[in-house]
Amino acid sequence: DSGVTQTPKHLITATGQRVTLRCSPRSGDLSVYWYQQSLDQGLQFLIQYYNGEERAKGNILERFSAQQFPDLHSELNLSSLELGDSALYFCASSSRIGHEQYFGPGTRLTVT
Amino acid sequence: DQQVKQNSPSLSVQEGRISILNCDYTNSMFDYFLWYKKYPAEGPTFLISISSIKDKNEDGRFTVFLNKSAKHLSLHIVPSQPGDSAVYFCAASAGIQGAQKLVFGQGTRLTINP
Fold it and tell me: Which residues of chain B have pLDDT under 50?
């Protein structure tokens, strides 16, 4: 158990809909990262937040957005969903000092 | 542009023998490298890491070697155990501590045969 929690574990929704994925980092970690793992691709970095502020951005679509709240949990919002958005979405957290990122169990999103 | 590459999609090793997983990178700005292990339906689990100022790091049965001139790193598992069967991802990062994204390879599926 990495200490990172993600909800929900599974999500099935239709094209055009909007969903919110939630992540709680390990106790004491200020950084939260979001990654996407599609069937035919490795883990792709989406976005990072540090203590409530956006710190780094990857190939995140404009239809996707994220935020980190004062209690340090983070939410990833995916809107106008397309079939190609079906993937595993992982959240990770790290301490301010460490390089290692610790991953949650992921949310499997299926868009039908 | 695949900055981190794991050219072997799969590897099969006999129990008790050494497993060697390889990873190549192209970006010379990477200064920290990590290996993760992933079981189905679970998130990646951190295994071992190495800073670019070192060429070897050991933790129990796991050793990571870094060859900066060749932009190559490898993970050695000795001895291999059935529980080591999983997908292994190599990852690299660059940037200040606390503000790094990880760039992952495509993964190598390791199967340990009894």
Answer: none
